[in-house]
Predict the structure.
Amino acid sequence: MTEKIKRAAARLTNRGDKIIVGFSGGADSVCLLHALCALSDELGLKISAAHVNHGLRGDEADRDELFALDFCRRLGIECRIKHADVRYLAEKMGISEETAGRHARYAFFEELSQGRAKIATAHHKNDSAETILMNLFRGSSLAGLAGIAEKRGNIIRPLMRLTRLEIEYYCAENNLQFVTDSTNNQSVYTRNRIRHVCIPYIEKYFNSNFVHTVTENAAVIFEENAYLNSETEKLYNQLVKEGEIELKKLHALPLALRRRLVRKICENAGVRDITAQYIEDILLLNGTGKSISLNNDICANISYGKLTIGSRVPQTAPYEYPLSIDEWTDIPEAKIRIRVRRTDNTDKNCFFFPNNAQLCVRNRRSGDIFFPAGMIGRKKIKDYFIDEKISRSKRASAPLLTCNNEIAWIINMRRDRRFASGAQAYIVETETTAS
């Protein structure tokens, strides 16, 4: 077992690494911390420990804290302690105490690490098997059926190839004492029921080697899921721009990749843990103007053959910026800047404005019309946007260049033919800005 831990630690670390071990004082973390300290010189690791007192079990929690300090003292390593009011955190965040405790632990570990140390936790095969079953019962993607990863970011799990029985054997062989959390035996927790009821029943009546079988399957699922993730990443970079994708291109993909791509767009827009039903509902959206609210801030909507997932479009307030000849003017709502300058050149790119004309840039107003170049008659700006399939999200902020209150140009889209000839020619230049 020491050799197994050594091989795992060598895979997951580099010489000179600082390792913070999440240390509860239970058999799993005692095994991990003892083994890593024994291997530290050989592998070139600097080991310390971190213990969180959740404030939930009274004297028992205080006993665990004292045990952690004493165990680390005997190993000759530093042990950092955090006191967390997990019950308060759970109520404040509207989550279970179990979840709040996990948040508190990892927040403390990351605080100590500051990105400069690796965090080692004592998860093992049985933990992974329990997690897989929990996710399966709740309904899960492949990621949930892949179990607990041996490495995620700066978090490493050197015991992932050991079973709980092997860990307890290691503690017995090395005469290691450990503490037991009494809540581990309470059936109120889903994980405990899976651990003490479900898995023993499966092992007794279906597969005596269930933990090994399910975690080996999970390793295969992990690799296949990683491949599909990489393919999804490629498609995202190719097809998605600012949370928007053409429906024709989305629906040309296999269904599995469609689902993954929509999930990734949602996650990048800030929607975490989106359910499978929401993904299916988004994929069924069809027709301009159709939308689904994903949370208070984010929605998915269809506009002119494109699916967009992002923040709800705020109403752009009316804006108007007067222009001075030869000076650049920023138009932050349209993310451009613009300059008008006189020219002696009279090619087709020029505009012709009367002397002392009042030039400005503004957004659309109700009833706006113009006389599109290359067309007969006039047209409402609103109708032009609809015909050109300009999304609702862009119509309100689209900039218009006006001359004496007449629209001369829907900037970077269509000119007004009334300003295509005259005495004085002008060049109108625009540049994109960051804001």
In short: Residues 171 and 177 are 7 Å apart (CA to CA). The longest strand covers residues 46-53. The radius of gyration is 32 Å. The chain has three domains: 2-219, 241-311, 320-432.
